[in-house]
Design brief:
By secondary structure, the chain is an alpha+beta fold. The protein has a single domain, classed as Nuclear Transport Factor 2, Chain: A. 31% of the residues lie in helices and 31% in strands. Strands 1-2-3 form a three-stranded antiparallel β-sheet, with helices on one face. Strand 1 and strand 2 form a beta hairpin. The longest helix is centred in the first third of the chain and has 17 residues. The protein starts with a helix and ends in an 8-residue tail after the last strand.
Amino acid sequence: MRNLLKVAVLLLTFANCCFAENNLLATISLDEATKQIIEGTYNKVLAAQTEIIDGKAVHVIKVLTPDGRIRYYKIDAETGQLVN
């Protein structure tokens, strides 16, 4: 009975998290977004993090380009598309 109660509490907690208005459950993971940026290039990833911009989860990836410049890429975590 105790285990059943614990499982029920965990399920309710998880369900609440999944249906929250500003959840961070993304369709494109930070790792996938990073691979998308460096795929087919010689860019070196310096940092990557997920931020909330205008109410949306956005992966911000900082890279070092082959010519020595630092560039930031922003990828929409829901669609996987580059954001301006």
